[in-house]
Amino acid sequence: MIKLTQILTEVPSVDAKVCLTMVQRTKSRLRIVLEDGQDAGLLLPRGHILHHGSLLSTDDGFVVEVVAAKEQVSTARSDNPTLFAKGCYHLGNRHVPLQVEAGWCRYQHDYVLDEMLIGLGLQVTVENEAFQPEAGAYGGTTGGHSHGDAYDDSLEKASHEHAHGHPHKHEH
To answer: What's the CA gap between 11 and 28, in Å, rounded?
Structure first.
């Protein structure tokens, strides 16, 4: 299994790509399958959120580019800036991850939120699109706390298997 352990800022070339949903891009430990079918695992520093175009690397320099997967989202639109701001305010007040662009915003589909925004006067469309929420005011990490990132220690255990093929017990 390919073990992706580093987040890079730039590289001369990419060796593979992986398509991940927004929820998958919040995980630091996750088994994944690259677009070419190779098994891989994320063993990344905690607290980082991956974005479309993020670059990951193994310890030996194999580079993987992250592609934001299309997923079911709701897109709310309004030509009225005040109405649009109110809709974004109410979503933010509910701590909804939100992608904000000129005249529209996008969030993971939730019919209750859709109805709330329609009630405010926004137009809401359910779509299958890539979702790239705002990183937040603190620089794109989770701010040092978890939002349900279930820890998968099987990947960490796998990272302790060395070249001679058997696992060791390591104290942490």
So the answer is: 21
Residues 42 and 4 sit within 8 Å (Cβ to Cβ): yes
CA pair distance 1, 12, nearest whole angstrom: 23
Instruction: Give the residue carrying structure tokens 């937040």.
Output: 136
Residue 33 lies in a domain: yes
Q: Tell me the C-alpha distance between 33 and 41, whole Å.
A: 8
CATH label of the domain that carries residue 80:
3.30.70.790
Does one domain contain both 91 and 118? yes
Residue with tokens 């949903």: 21
Structure-model confidence comparison of residues 27 and 141, the more confident one: 27
pLDDT the model gives residue 43: 96
Higher pLDDT, 28 or 147: 28
What are the tens digits of pLDDT across the range 64-84? 999 999 999 999 999 999 999
Specify the DSSP class assigned to residue 12.
S
Paired tokens of 125: 């469309």
Note whether 78 and 104 are same-domain residues: yes
